[in-house]
Backbone:
């Protein structure tokens, strides 16, 4: 069995994580472009189709320097908010290489995206009707919900029958009536079944549904299969077999193009697949605390910086990079937030001493982008490793940054002066 976690971890072998912690302080997110490139090229090689387009799902990690690097690889961008679109344009992506895939937004927001020149992906009958009346000259992509349950957690399974995402496959006749009545041009169809898809079979079943849908539209330029491929989180962990899926889906897609009468592009939106393993999160051990049943390591971070273990019950591999060869001991690693923010329970680490640096793996996706100022804590710095050199790509916040948008009214100054 292939071990994708260990293979990718090898790309970190020459990165001196304790030195980065010393230079930039902790907590700090560290990103490795060598890993992003490895994952991108693996996807490209997996598919044998006439036209392949990869749009990075930037909600995973939106740092501008990361976006700029992804663009050098040849990727487009998938965005779920107007500000992500604006970040993509700032990073140098052309509007034509950006697909806007929101959920539950207004016609006004869609029209703002249209004004920016990006492609739009529609996931509701209501919005499709509104666009058909107001923007008939603008080509659209239609997001279909195939009603396939896939994904590693109920919060990230988005293609099932009770999901808010997409237009039900059972509503396809209604979609076709709207298109016919309004003259709306559909140039793409789309699906996304969920994240952390382990088994290839549900994905291929959903792909077959989408290919059947595609035959209903005569002027498609692309078919977008979303993403959600599972990455490994520890040695020996199972992940999506991209090579197997690429081989099987490529056959289906080439047959589709032959029957459709022309070549259309096969599109994917990898997010976590590209950047999850490209990130490490470095923290410092504040205290080693022994209770009657547990030895806790309290670190200088919490769910405000890495919420995935608490939100998704996700696993992040933890290492003591200061003392990797120390005597192995069992610890529960916890944060400094005034909540139960447990990063890992009963983890075997090299003996941890106060001041040691711990490293969390798979910290490239949905870590900084989901960070907050809870407990009025500041968000960490971000560092990019490119060709062996470390570059600061986001400064650590200060309390001044946290309060910069607050507005004083002067309402209580006199009262407080009197109290003083």
Residues:
């Amino acid at each position: 069995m292939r071990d994708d976690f260990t293979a990718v971890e090898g790309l970190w072998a020459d990165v001196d994580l304790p030195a980065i912690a010393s230079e930039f302080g902790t907590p700090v997110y560290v990103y490795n472009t060598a890993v992003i490139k490895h994952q991108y090229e693996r996807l490209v090689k997996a598919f044998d189709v006439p036209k392949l387009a990869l749009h990075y799902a930037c909600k995973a990690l939106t740092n501008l320097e990361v976006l700029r690097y992804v663009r050098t690889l040849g990727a487009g961008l998938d965005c779920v908010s107007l500000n992500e679109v604006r970040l993509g344009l700032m990073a140098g992506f052309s509007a034509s290489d950006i697909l806007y895939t929101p959920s539950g937004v207004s016609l006004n927001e869609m029209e703002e995206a249209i004004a920016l020149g990006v492609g739009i992906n529609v996931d509701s009958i209501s919005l499709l009707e509104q666009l058909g009346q107001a923007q008939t000259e603008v080509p659209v992509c239609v997001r279909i919900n195939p009603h396939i349950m896939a994904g590693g957690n109920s919060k990230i399974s988005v293609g099932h029958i009770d999901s808010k995402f997409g237009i039900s496959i059972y509503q396809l006749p209604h979609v076709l009536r709207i298109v016919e009545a309004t003259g709306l041009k559909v140039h793409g169809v789309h699906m996304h079944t969920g994240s952390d898809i382990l088994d290839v079979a549900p994905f291929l079943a959903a792909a077959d549904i989408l290919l059947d849908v595609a035959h209903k539209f005569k002027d498609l330029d692309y078919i977008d299969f979303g993403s959600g491929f599972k990455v490994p989180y520890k040695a020996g962990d199972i992940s999506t077999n991209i090579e197997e899926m690429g081989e099987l889906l490529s056959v289906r897609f080439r047959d589709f193009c032959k029957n459709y009468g022309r070549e259309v592009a096969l599109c994917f939106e990898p997010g976590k697949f590209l950047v999850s393993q490209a990130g490490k999160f470095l923290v410092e051990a504040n205290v080693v605390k022994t209770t009657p049943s547990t030895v806790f390591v309290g670190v200088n971070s919490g769910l405000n910086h890495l919420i995935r273990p608490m939100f998704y019950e996700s696993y992040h591999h933890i290492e003591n990079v200061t003392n990797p060869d120390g005597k192995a001991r069992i610890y529960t690693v916890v944060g400094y937030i005034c909540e139960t923010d447990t990063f890992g329970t009963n983890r075997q680490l090299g003996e941890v001493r106060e001041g040691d640096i711990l490293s969390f793996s798979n910290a490239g996706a949905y870590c900084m982008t989901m960070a907050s100022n809870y407990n009025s804590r500041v968000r960490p710095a971000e560092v990019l490793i490119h060709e062996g050199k470390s570059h600061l790509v986001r400064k650590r916040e200060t309390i001044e940054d946290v309060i910069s948008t607050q507005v004083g009214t002067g309402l209580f100054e006199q009262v407080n002066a009197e109290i003083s």
Notes: The two ends are 70 Å apart (CA to CA). The chain has two domains: 47-275, 279-363+367-398. DSSP finds 14 helices and 18 strands in the chain.
